[in-house]
Amino acid sequence: MPFPTTLDIPGDVLEIARTLTAAGHEAWCVGGAVRDAFLGIATLDWDIATAARPEDVQRLFRRTVPVGVRFGTVGVLDRDGVLHEVTTFRHDVETDGRHAVVRFGASLEEDLARRDFTINAIAVHAERLEVRDPFGGRADLAARLVRCVGDPRERMREDRLRALRAIRFAGRFGFAIDPATWEAIRESAPHLGRLSMERVKQELEKVMEQVA
How many CA atoms lie within 13 A of 91 on its CB side? Predict the structure, then answer.
């Protein structure tokens, strides 16, 4: 799969990243928008991971929404009113398969290591367009493969919803699921009843949206 020679990061996202960087905080574009950009899919939903703490983000930007401050996430509204999630680098300290306790102070690589799938664990520096891909996400995009970051069983234990997310991504992009990841999904199936109906409903709605 030929990747774009450059990524078209929206100006408002670049401005948010520059504001963070100018204040002395590392800032990287991460997540689904980066994945989709490498696939040539346009999206407005750009998120940023940063070394800045939530209170730093709230101080630096005039228009913010406390999306999930205790988990490190602050929504920053750009000039057009589009919300971009800015999230502090973090570790998962503990999880019960539904809720995580996080600790700030992680590095970018440690933050990427806690993500679900390799294709969602790619970071791009908004200004330099430097790519950080410690888990081979671009190779998996090229191979059309959904694969967990690290140990698939551990990733599923951390958040049981990831089983449904893997299936959704495979269906959306026409990707295969890595055998070890698929086995972890099968083992995780009996635990899906622990998820709230709301979370399952949201995931199923996303599945329906992509086939509508």
Answer: 8
Find the DSSP H helices in the chain.
11-22, 32-38, 54-60, 108-113, 137-143, 152-158, 162-173, 179-188, 197-211
Average pLDDT, integer, range 128-147: 96
Q: Please give the helix or strand (H or E) that residue 95 lies within, else none.
A: strand 90-95
pTM, full prediction: 0.87
Reduced DSSP (H G I as helix, E B as strand, rest coil) percent helix, strand, coil of the chain, to 5: 45, 20, 35
Backbone angles phi, psi at 36, to 5 degrees: -65, -35
The CA distance from 157 to 191, in Å, is 9
CA atoms within 13 A on the CB side of 165: 16
Amino acid identity for residue 196 in this structure: S
Tell me how crowded residue 208 is: count the other CB atoms within 10 A of its CB.
8
Integer Cα distance of 95 and 201 in angstroms: 21
Measured between alpha carbons, how far is 20 from 200 in angstroms, rounded to an integer? 34
Higher pLDDT, 94 or 65: 65
Query: What are residue 26's phi and psi, to 5 degrees?
Result: -60, 140
Measured from the Cβ of residue 69, the count of other Cβ atoms closer than 10 Å reads 17
Helices and strands in the chain, H and E counts = 9, 11
Contact 167, 124 (CB under 8 A): no
The total number of residues written for the chain in this structure: 212
Two structure tokens written together for 22: 């100018």
